[in-house]
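Reopening this ticket.

The earlier resolution said the output was attached, but the attachment link was broken on my side. Pasting everything inline this time so it's all in one place.
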Amino acid sequence: MFALAPLALAGCAGPSLLLLDNEDGSSEGALAVIDEKCGNPEGSTIAGSFTRTRLAGCTPRPKGVGEDGLKPDERSLIGALPPPPARFIMYFVQDTTVLAPGSEGMIEALDRHFKSRPGAELEIIGYTDTVGKADYNLALSQKRADEIRGRLIELGFPPEVMTATGRGERELRFPTPDETENGGNRRVEIIVR
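Inline output:
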């Protein structure tokens, strides 16, 4: 199955739907088309990148068109879409807000990327590994997110385009048992949208 962003278009032959790749370029997932008047409560499932489906009648008729089969107005709409989100990950020394060796370069890469995306917003999310109590880790993850936010403000990033959140040991990048040190989980992820 392919998860794709739907793009509804109306043409002279009636409404149609065009499925695209996800923001990250993947094509997992599907879309259900439900019309209660047709007596099919489960609807019809449509999947596949660059699949156009006419929505007239009770039976959608999907047709793979590929990128080469796009209409000029579809190309124009796709061209106007914002760029996909970008992720930057920085790692930390255990039980601190000090960046681990090698993570400093991510701030420079983030700075270059951010400057190339006018109007972008940053979501800064701090995490910990599972060593320590959950409440302590939640506070430490917030301190890590706040530390990176502060550094970005010092570099000239506008504060109003950033949010900083700590999630503690939730959403581990590498699942581990409790009280397990893991440098891959001690991180801040920055999502640029």
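Reporter confirms the inline version is readable. The longest helix spans residues 134-154. The longest strand covers residues 5-11.
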